[in-house]
Amino acid sequence: MIRSLLFFLFLGALAAYLFKMVLLLDFNKRVYNHRPGSCRQVEGIVHGSEDIALLEDEGIAILTSGVFFISPREKDVKGQMFLYDFAQNGTFKAEPLKINGKYDQENFHPHGITHIVTSTGTVRLFVISHTRAFEHSVMVFRQTRQLDLVKTIRDEKFIRPNDLVAVSEEAFILSNDGSAQTTVTNLIEYMSLIPSGSVVYYDGKVNHNI
Asked: Helix, strand or coil for residue 150?
C-alpha cells in the first residue's frame, strides 16, 4: 500500500516536472518571423556579438563581442567592442573600438551593455565584463569614436550578471541570471528549476538587492 502510494506520488511529481519543463522550453508556442527588410550579415565580428546599445541620435550601435560565460572558450577568443555606423553606403561592417585606459585586456570579455546621455551630452556606457576565472565587473566608459575607461565597479552582489540598464549617469539596475559558476552546477541549477536569479540596484556608491 505504502509502496503504491509512493510510486503514484513519484509519477505525479515527475509529470508536474516534465510539464513545467515543456512550458519553460516553449514547445507549446508558435513564433512568427517578421523582418523589416533584407537580412544581411554584419562583417568584422569574428567571435559573436552578445549585446547591442543603439544610439539612435548618432545613428550608430555599440556591440559587445567575445563573451566568456561559464563554458570555456578558445584562447584566441578576444573580448572587443565594436561600432556599427548605419550611415554606411553599400557596406555592412562593424569596426573595432579603441579602448583608452588601464584595464586587463586578456580578461576583458564584455557581455551586457547599456548607455545613457549625460547632462553635458556625452554618451556614457555601462558594460558587464567577465574574466576567464569568471569574475565579474561593470566597466564605465565615455564614448566618442573611441572608448575612454572612466571606472570599473566590482561587488559581491554581481553573482552572475547578464544584463543591465542605466537609470542615471551613475546608477544602473543589473540582473543576475543565476548563481552557478561552473558548467556542471549551471546544468543542475537549470534542471532543478530553482529560481536563483536576482536583481541589483547600484546607486552610484552602493549595491542594493531588489
From this structure: strand
